[in-house]
Amino acid sequence: MIMSAGSCFRGYFFGLQETLVPAINQVLEQVVRMTVIFLLAGIMMPLGLAYACAAAVIGIVAEEVFSLIYILASYKKFKVKNILNKKPTMNPIVSLSILFAMAMPLTANRVTGSLLTTFENMLIPQRLQLYGMTAKEAISAFGQLTGMALPIIYFPSAFLISLSISLVPSISEASTVKNFSRVQFAASRSILFSSIIGFCAASLFVVFSNELGQIIYKQDISHMLMFLGVMSPFLYMQVVLSGILNGLGYQVFLFRNSLISSAITIAFVYFLIPKMGIDAFILGWFVSLVLVCYLEIEKLRSNVHLEFEFSKWFFKPLLAAAATSLVMKFVAVNFLLPFFGNGLGLLISVVILSVVYMSLIILLGCLTTKEIADLIKSIKPKNADSSKNKSFML
Q1: Is the dihedral of CA 53, 55, 59, 61 positive or negative?
Q2: Element housing 85 (H / E)
Q3: What per-residue string of b and e applies to 73-83 under the rule 16 or more CB within 10 Å gives b?
Q4: Nearest to residue 32, comparing CAs of 64, 5, 57?
């Protein structure tokens, strides 16, 4: 009920292209969940697996409660300031038919995805036992992946999820009025920003995979973080691509891609986990992400004539991330971590890594200061003269 209510209020703001409130809401969710789990983990994990799971559930509940409180307060404040008395431009029957035409494939995608994910979750521990693990070891390895490594990997994507959802009304509006140049511009810049954030995150997770696991969970999950970090650029890009294609009305195409992705992952889980262990799941997920990103970019190229900018989207961010990783690995291991300790040393290292990476991105001509200013402008709330400023003007 809380999740449903929160989703409705977020949809209200996204429909009006008021992107700041949902963006803050998404970040708040991530921060609250990670903070609660971090505070409870040290107390409840030593008591046993059931208590550790309870800590994770409490974190999720706290996330949803705080999220709803914030979004509801924002809605009341926005409603008082922006009282609209316009008459509807479309009758209810037409509105419902359009809504159901979009909702049916989206619902089918969610339901099917949930069922296939449940099947994966049941299958992975079973196949890990064929790899040679005991039932307890298999559950533990699966728990480290889904409960420890993945929340860290998904944390930087909070902004991109908000961006992805905000793209739906913005691009849908541009597509409706046949303004395809705006669609191309928004799509190109969105993919660029997701790639830049993805490669920066990949650099962070690869260089500090051991330190992140030890500081947050006091466990060694460096192997998982390193491999998941490599796939971060494609993971984040797929989020944005889905938002663009949803805005263009390609829900059925996305549903098909979701089925292809799940089929590939399940095949890797079933056939290769008994030979490779948990790495087979990560490899299958990576292969499915690369394929789905390729299919979705090709869809945009063929339908809105989006130019594929390989150098800006992949080569230059990869070059900046590789150079930053090599420098920061040496500096952090030999100077920052020994001098400041793991906690403060890691924080300083992450800040320096981000600054160095973004400096290289700008020096390589991948991102200009004007594009950064446009991005900041695009997430500002609308005001009295907002008609001059669309919510997504990348």
Answers
A1: positive
A2: none
A3: ebbeebeeeee
A4: 64
What are 302-319's pLDDT values in tens digits?
Answer: 988 899 999 999 999 999
Is residue 228 a contact partner of residue 149, using CB atoms and an 8 Å limit? yes
Q: For the segment 82-100, what is each residue's pLDDT rounded down to a tens digit?
A: 655 556 666 778 777 877 7
b/e code 359-387 from CB counts within 10 Å (16+ = b): ebbeebebbeeeeeeebeebbeebeeeee
Mean per-residue pLDDT for 19-43? 82
Structure tokens at 342: 């793991």
**Phi, psi dihedral angles at 217 (to 5 degrees):** -115, -10
N residues, the chain: 394
125-169, pLDDT tens digit by residue? 999 999 999 999 999 999 899 888 998 998 887 767 666 666 667
Q: Predicted confidence band at 52 (pLDDT cuts at 50, 70, 90)?
A: confident
31 sits in the region (left: phi over 0; alpha: psi -120 to 50; else beta) called: alpha
**DSSP annotation string for 324-386:** HHHHHHHHIIIIIHHHH-HHHHHHHHHHHHHHHHHHHHHHTTSS-HHHHHHHHHHTSPP-TTG
To which residue do tokens 């830049």 refer?
196
- Is a pLDDT exceeding 80 seen at residue 379? no
Are 367 and 196 spatial neighbours (Cβ–Cβ below 8 Å)?
yes
Alpha-carbon span 158 to 236, nearest angstrom: 10
- Of the candidates 198, 197, 200, 174, which has an alpha carbon nearest to the alpha carbon of residue 187? 174
